Every structure is written in structure tokens, then in C-alpha cells.
Amino acid sequence: MYRSLVVSNVLKSISILWLLLVLQLLPLCGSFFNESSVFGPEKLQAFKVFDDEQPDQISGRSFICVPLFRIFNLELRHQIRLAPDEYVAVSGDHPALGSWHLDKAVPLKEQDKDRTKWYLRIWICATQRFYYRYLIYSRNAQGKRILRRWEGQKVARMLQAYEMYRSPGLDIFGEAYPTSVGGGFSLERGWLQYEYVIELKFIWQDHFLISGLSSKTKFRLILTPLNLMDDTRIEVSRYSYNHSAFRPQSKQGVRYTQGSIVVFRIYQPLETYNAFRLSIYQGSKDFRLSVGEAYMFPEQFKGSRGILQIPILASLQTISIGELTLPYLVVHPMPKVEAGNLRASFHQYWPDNWPTLDVGHRGMGASYFQSSTSLTENTIESFLAVEKAKGDMVQLDVQLTKDYVPVIWHGFGFYTSGKDQQIRDRFDLRYVLIRELNYSELKASRVFILKRWTLQEYTHLNVKDPSQNGKIFPKLSEVYETLPKTLGLIVEIKWPQLMASGVLESSQTLNKNVYVDKIIQTTIQYGCGRPLIFASFDADVCTMLRLKQHVFPVILMSIGDSRIWDPYMDLRAQSFQEAVNFAQSAEILGSAMHIENFQSKHQLVNLGLDLHQAVFLWGNHLQDEQLLEEFRVLDVTGLIYDHMDKVGPASWKRSVFFRAPQLLELFGGQCVVSGNSTSIPGAKPVKPTIWPKLR
Ligand SMILES: *[C@@H]1O[C@H](CO)[C@@H](O)[C@H](O)[C@H]1NC(C)=O
Ligand SMILES: *[C@@H]1O[C@H](CO)[C@@H](O)[C@H](O)[C@H]1NC(C)=O
Ligand SMILES: *[C@@H]1O[C@H](CO)[C@@H](O)[C@H](O)[C@H]1NC(C)=O
Ligand SMILES: *[C@@H]1O[C@H](CO)[C@@H](O)[C@H](O)[C@H]1NC(C)=O
Questions:
Q1: Distance from the CA of 33 to the center of ligand 2, in angstroms?
Q2: Are 312 and 285 contained in the same domain?
Q3: Residue 667 CA, distance from chain mean position
Q4: So which residues are the signal peptide here (predicted)?
Q5: Which of 133, 169, 511, 610 has the smallest set of CB atoms within 10 Å of its CB?
Q6: Which residues constitute the domain of residue 558?
Q7: Does ligand 4 come within 6 angstroms of the Cβ of 677?
Q8: Which residues does 76 contact at the CB level (< 8 Å), separation at least 6?
């Protein structure tokens, strides 16, 4: 069966020259095996014509599978050291390499004591080029693979079919296609699947209150799990420019002084609950004086987030000498996360050779308090107008109703009243939060916006008709379905902040993990295959988006240092510098900062750009052609502003950036990476390899 298929293929498709070559090779391969079954069933599987499953697509130039070994030679450099429970594997689009599934990736064999040299000899054959990348994994108690680090470059390693038969070179872990945009040295942490994360965050001005010690005391901190099983990994990140990263704890502990930012990250298997001890020392690297310790118990980590307030005990005693106030975050994997695969990661995919992008703020701009915009903000109509004005992307605000439906709206709530109530002035209205209403209640609500001197009713725009592009509260899914894929999106996820004064901006009771999951799921289902960046003013939402998925990049939105607004309690949100540190530490794409941070010193944007981070700018002052141009010259990633129709690029730009079909095909990869699709929607089938001329 196999042979006859091969022969007919050969006769159909291969030139005489190839036929001769094939006939020469065949007996040679046969000698690897016994004659009775030249190809055993297992081998047959491995030698299958690569696109056997899509016989229609087999091109006229398909080449039969010549059984040869492929050798993968890998070396770990860049000071990468494996933990004893870590192993190396190769994954690829070829079935023999597991079709990008983590659990089917093929382990390499270690070759030296340092575990830096690895190799694999595998039967593989391909009639088309194939792609592959290396990864480091460990196993949990159930034997499931945990993805620790992987080559997440947008561009995977590629082997042309004719290169199969060349002697193999040496691959360096993490270095794939250094000269290619989207390639180069890059390693990523895997997304969460069988583990969850607890972050203990020193991100406020004051965390310790210890009797007899000044707030300026220099501490060293060590976090220890108090479990019997060795199933907890702890990393810590102390922010400093260009050195912010989660690393294993050192024996001396991590330095901490009031006002610095230190975040502990704990990885644990699902359904595992451990207690922890935080040991607090005073002094330097070489001399440590124990101050005390604080104990944290599993039942204290309730829900997705919270604040621990725990006593600090004198070492080995039960006398309380102070108190530790420490916010925490718990990040769970997404439901059905197994669908995701290793085909690519988009976390860092936003090449810095792209032009500065023009991004419409809430569409054509904020409309409720600035009467000069005729289109209502955050409506599909307003978004569509951005593309007409040759804008490249739209920024929009998304939050969830009580029944977890993602809707577009900027404020945390709005003013409303009873159905037939007569409204004379603002005192007849009450404020209601989006999270307090389910979607049908929201759509049945009267909507008022309170302006300085007047109040205006918008109920006529709160319609249900999905074809009505001017309606307010469009669902996120409707936005994805209606907008063309050539219009990029910055999807800003709303979450109320704690202000530095201690007051909450608004309240939120929905489960934060479910909240974020719902938005990711809606986006994978309806929004994949387009340029899209998640954003949030909430650093924890950014962390969650980063840890839960690898399909969409993430940026931190930030006001930074401002005279206009009150600061947040979270130090990570108080300056551009800390936003850059956060982006580096959390391994996200970058940040979107308020323009006020750069007013007198535009060059400051380089703090982020020099670290290859995306830097977007936003703010009212940006409605100024000259200012926009000044930042374009500095190559910022994007400018988010109002009134694209008046100050935007319509007069000089030939076309919006994402018009290029190649780009859309590229982002189409998101649908495959997330497991929502097996092929890129609308993309043409891969062309067969063009074989080089034989001499
Ligand atoms: C040939 O190989 C098959 C499968 O690999 C094996 O079952 C069989 O015993 C072998 N025959 C001889 C003669 O070695
Ligand atoms: C929304 O809330 C209303 C009033 O509480 C209730 O009657 C209705 O069933 C809810 N709808 C959904 C879809 O949950
Ligand atoms: C950041 O650190 C790396 C490695 O230490 C160094 O090569 C690079 O020049 C630094 N970049 C900046 C902008 O300081
Ligand atoms: C992808 O999402 C669409 C839209 O809901 C859904 O109909 C489809 O079944 C999903 N495909 C896969 C493979 O999950």
C-alpha cells in the first residue's frame, strides 16, 4: 500500500532525475532493516508523507519520504543551568516532533555531566520544510509536563526539506534566527497549566511595623515553604533598571528597604496548599541579624487577591514584635488551557522596526465630557471611524457585568433612574456599577451622564439591536465580530485601584481570575487573528494575562507621575521608570504612559525603548500635530489620542499599517496557537519546498 502510493506519487510527480536518486536511495535504506518489513508500522507512521492527511494538497513536486536520521544537537549557553528535575525536549509541527503539543515533544538525551549538551537522533522525514523549537520542562507528581522555559520567538527554527540530509549543525538554546525580526535570543516562561502562582508583593510604601526599628531599616528577606514535599518553587524579583527579573532566591535573601519593590512568586502544583515562613533579617550580605519571622498559612490566601495582616514574631519565640501588611495575588491557569500549543508565542511579538502606530482613544475620542466629538466614545461606530481616518488601532475599555459578560464602557458605572421616573435634577438619579447588573438588566437601564452643569440622557443609545453600531455597551464579542481585522485593538481591562490615600477608586467583587479568564476566552473565540494588545492600569491584571496565556501581548497602562490625578497606592504605577521595571520583571511587552511624564524630557521614552519594550503614549495634550510628530521621530511604539480625524494621519498616510495581508496571516497564527483553529483562517496552504537545482 505504502509502496504503491509512493511509486504512483513518484511517477506522477517527480522528474526522471529525482526518480533516479530515489531508486538509488531506496535499497540503501532497506539495509537498515530486515527484508520482511522494510517499514514496520511504527516507522511507516514516522515516514509518512508529511501532508498525507491532506492528499488534495500534495503538490506536483512532492517527494517520497526517504528514511534517514535527523540529529538534533543542542547546547545550553548564556549561563542557563538546569535544575535537577528539568529536561530538554524538541517540539515541532512535524508529527514525529509532536505537532507542537507539549506532551508529545521529544526529549533529548544529555551528553555531559553539566547537562549543557543534549542530542537526539530521530527517524523523521518530510517533503516540506518543517519548524521546530526547544523547550525545558519538568514533570509533576502525575507525570504531566510543566513547561518551564521555551524558545517563544515568533519565528521558529526551520529546516528545509533538502536540509534534512545535510550533516546537522549545533543549535544554541534560545538563539533562533538572530537576524530575523521576531527571532534572536529569546526565552520565555511557559504559561500556567498544572501549576498556580501566588505573588507576595512588597509594592506599597509601608509594609513593616516593627517596634524599636525605624522605617528606614535595611532588611534581608527569605521566604521558605514549610511543606514536607518538595513541590514548591520560589522566585523573587527586586526592581532595578534593566535588572528586574524573577530569579531563584539567594542564600543571603533579598534586600528590602521601605519604598523599594520586591515581589515573591510561588509556583505550586494545583490543589497543593503550603504554609510559608518569611524570615526577616537586618544587616548586610555577610552579617545577618535575625529580626523575626512571619508565618503565612494556606487558609489566609482567600480568593484571587487580598491583604495579609500577620504578626511578626521574635525568632524562635512567640512574642509578637510587630506586624506585616502584605498584599497577595493568586493566579490560576485558564480552564481548558491544554488546547494551547507551542507553535509560537506572541508575548514579545511587536517588532521595533514597525512605524509609530496611530491609536484612536476610545475610538474617535472621549465624547461625554468633550462636546467636540460627534461620535459617542467606545461605540463600534466610533471605532470604525478610526480606520476611515487612517488610524492603525483603537483603544477601548472592557469590563464585566454581574453575569460575566464583557462589555465596553469607560466608567465603572453610570447614573440611572426608574423606568418612568421624571428627572428634574441630579438628585433624582442614582449611581449604579456595571458589576452590579447582569447583561439584560444593563441593556434595560436608563443611562445618564452627569456633566458639570447639565445632565444628559443616553438611554436611546442603549439598544439591543446588534446591527446598531452607535449603541453603547456593545459586547466585546460584537466588537470583534464587527470590526475589520485590519484595525488593531488595545483592549484595556478595567479594574478599580487602591489610591495612595487608602481610598478605593471603585469596588469590585467579581472573582478576578474568572474575570480575566472570561475576557481571554472571548478574545480567543472571537478576536484572534488580528493585531491585539491587552492592557490594564492594574499591574496584577497584567501579571495574570501574562501567566495565563501566550496568544496576546500585554502592556501596563499607567498615569505615572502626575499633577492631574491622585497617585495609586501601587508603587509600580507611580512612575515611568517603575512601569519599565514592571514590564521587564513580568516579561510583558511594555507600557502605555501618560504624556505628562515626558513633557519636559521627551527622550525619557528611551528608558523603555532601549530595553526593547513597547512604549505607547496617551493623554489629552497629544491632540497636537506637532507633538505627535516629535514623538514619531523618537520612534515610540504608538500614540493613543483623541480626534484622529482632525490631527491624525489622514492627509499623509497612504494606508493603515495592518492592511498588509502578510501581517494578517501572521496574526492568524494566534487562532492556531490558542487551539481555537487548526489552520490560519483565510490563509493559503503552504507552498511546497522549491528544491535547489542539483549539479
Ligand atoms: C523483522 O522485523 C520485524 C519488526 O521489526 C520483526 O518482528 C521480525 O522478527 C524481524 N524479522 C527478522 C527475520 O529479523
Ligand atoms: C438578570 O437579573 C434579573 C433581575 O435580578 C433576573 O430576573 C434575570 O433572570 C437575570 N438574567 C440573567 C440572564 O441572569
Ligand atoms: C541591560 O543589561 C544588559 C545585560 O547586562 C546589557 O547588555 C545592556 O546593554 C543593558 N541595557 C541598557 C539599556 O542598560
Ligand atoms: C473557535 O471558536 C469558534 C467561535 O466560537 C467556535 O465556534 C469553534 O468551535 C472554536 N474552535 C475550536 C477548534 O475550538
A1: 69
A2: yes
A3: 14
A4: 1-31
A5: 169
A6: 345-409+475-673
A7: yes
A8: 82, 88, 115, 116, 117, 118, 172, 173
From the alpha carbon of 242, which atom of ligand 3 is closest? 1
C-alpha 680 – ligand 4 centre gap (Å): 13
Higher pLDDT, 293 or 128: 293
**pLDDT tens digits along 359-368:** 999 999 999 8
Is 57's C-beta closer than 6 angstroms to any atom of ligand 4?
A: no
Q: What domain count does the chain have? A: 3
556, 592 in Cβ contact below 8 A?
yes
Degrees, nearest 5: CA angle 240-241-242 = 110
Q: Is residue 144 part of a domain?
A: yes
More confident residue, 461 or 351: 461
Say which CATH number the domain at 205 has. 2.60.40
CATH of the domain at 550: 3.20.20.190
pLDDT the model gives residue 48: 47
Residues 333 and 346: beta-carbon distance below 8 Å:
no
CB of 625 within 6 A of ligand 2: the answer is: no
The reported pTM is 0.87
3-state percent helix, strand, coil for the chain, nearest multiple of 5: 25, 30, 45
Is residue 524 within 8 Å of 647, Cβ to Cβ?
no
Q: Do 255 and 124 share a structural domain? A: no
Q: Rounded to an integer, what distance in angstroms lies between the CA atom of residue 617 and that of residue 634?
A: 12
Q: Would 633 be classed as within a structural domain?
A: yes
Whether residue 253 sits in one domain with residue 398: no
Alpha-carbon distance 410 to 82, whole Å?
46
For position 67, what pLDDT does the model report?
Answer: 57
- In three-state form (DSSP H/G/I as H, E/B as E, the rest C), the secondary structure along 649-680 is HHHCCCCCHHHCHHHHHHHHHHHHHCCCCCCC
Residues with CB under 6 A from ligand 3: 242, 610-611
Ligand 4 proximity of 525 Cβ (cutoff 6 Å): yes
Residue to mutate (ligand 3; options 185, 242, 603, 609; most atoms within 8 A of CB): 242
Which pLDDT score is estimated for 42?
Answer: 55
Same domain assignment for residues 502 and 368: yes
Q: Spell out the residues 6+ positions from residue 359 whose beta carbon is closer than 8 angstroms to its own.
A: 391, 392, 393, 394, 395, 488, 490, 616, 618, 638, 639, 640, 641
Q: Is residue 574 part of a domain?
A: yes
- Residue 59: the pLDDT is 43
Does residue 258 sit in the same domain as residue 394?
no
Q: Which amino acid is at 42?
A: E
Q: Which ligand 4 atom sits closest to the C-alpha of 677? A: 13
- Nearest atom (ligand 1) to Cα of 34: 1
Interval between CA 493 and ligand 2 midpoint (Å): 24
Is 445 inside any structural domain? no
Same domain, yes or no, for 210 and 181? no
533-588, pLDDT tens digit by residue? Answer: 999 999 999 999 999 999 999 999 999 998 889 999 999 999 999 999 999 999 99
Structural contact between residues 525 and 676, judged by C-beta atoms closer than 8 angstroms: yes
Q: How far apart are the first and last CA of the chain?
A: 33
pLDDT band at 11 (very low <50, low <70, confident <90, very high): very low
Q: How confident is the model at residue 186 (pLDDT cuts 50, 70, 90)?
A: confident
